[in-house]
């Protein structure tokens, strides 16, 4: 027969679990205080980060959650102080697009990639850091569609978010033409993909 001590939960025997052994809050099963959430959003804290901060502080108050979030952010920034993010745009030079057309296609690529990054938590956080660090953007020259596809495959192999724009073909280029490839990520990693390309 098992001993009585074995059948009594650890907390009843006076044993204390380390915080690292405790299960983190399950965001799928817990609701956050909507008033506190709104107060955090007014501080420009991303919604998902605000929810996690409230869950980790047990919905005590918006102030507690804000302190948790900014302390966590500060610690992450100290650990990543040398990490810079940038968004690059590789233009398909084979299409010989006019200046205005290139500008429009780069704009499409920037918006499309930024929107796509909101669908994944890690990418959303990357986009937030990029935006708050100056939103660095660089426009580069690509050879042709095959070149853009090759660069996209390499970027994806490094888990970098990408977006390839295909034009509707209303002006200057044929329908379905791949005009611009957008890539976002840590500057050093992005340079591994596009570092050899010339500026436009």
From TrEMBL:
One of its GO terms (molecular function) is peptidyl-tRNA hydrolase activity. It catalyses: an N-acyl-L-alpha-aminoacyl-tRNA + H2O = an N-acyl-L-amino acid + a tRNA + H(+). Gene3D superfamilies: Bit1, DNA helicase RuvA subunit, C-terminal domain. The keyword ATP-binding does not apply. Keywords: Hydrolase. One of its GO terms (cellular component) is cytosol. The keyword ATP-binding does not apply. Its EC number is 3.1.1.29. Residues 33-72 form the UBA domain. It is an enzyme of class 3 (hydrolase). It holds the Pfam family PTH2. NCBIfam families: arch_pth2. Belongs to the PTH2 family. This is peptidyl-tRNA hydrolase.
